[in-house]
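Input.
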Amino acid sequence: MKILVTGFKPYGRYRRNPSERLARESGRLRLGGARVVARVLPTEYKGCEAELRRAIRTIRPDAIVMFGLAPERRKITIEALALNVDHSERPDNAGVRPWRRTIDRKGPALLETTLPVDKMYAALRRARVPVTVSYHAGTYVCNHAFYTAARLAPRVKVGFIHVPKNESPARLRRAMEVIVGEVCREISR
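Output.
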């Protein structure tokens, strides 16, 4: 079983992106027979899509667990839906500032996560990690990556988790371990 875990490089005024650290640390996880492969994506619409295409083609994962920074959030946030739209007043790291742009003209307006949201939520609560569920991943690069991965790998479990800026690295690592562990259990069933 192969699990692709992604995070993003820093962007805008955020010199550190905790999702980058999570992705890098995930490569050291030992979860039974699961092989966890980490990728850090550029915080760019086109760049993250190109890297996801390469990773999905070469790794052929059974699940994709994506992490990204949501600086305003105070809890780990499991995203339920990816929207088929890029829209932002702030540019990505390549200077692109899309305005109400469709990601995939042939794709549905939204895609639902295929990760076990309720089980991840319950497991995080048991681990005393502050968690909530959000009904979409926004319209910035995180959402673009989530939607793109779901479209590129329709038979693969795919989901996105936003992390807060000020959470401790130890708690974020624990959250990542719980989430990836729950995804492994789901795939093994």
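The chain is about 35% helix and 20% strand.
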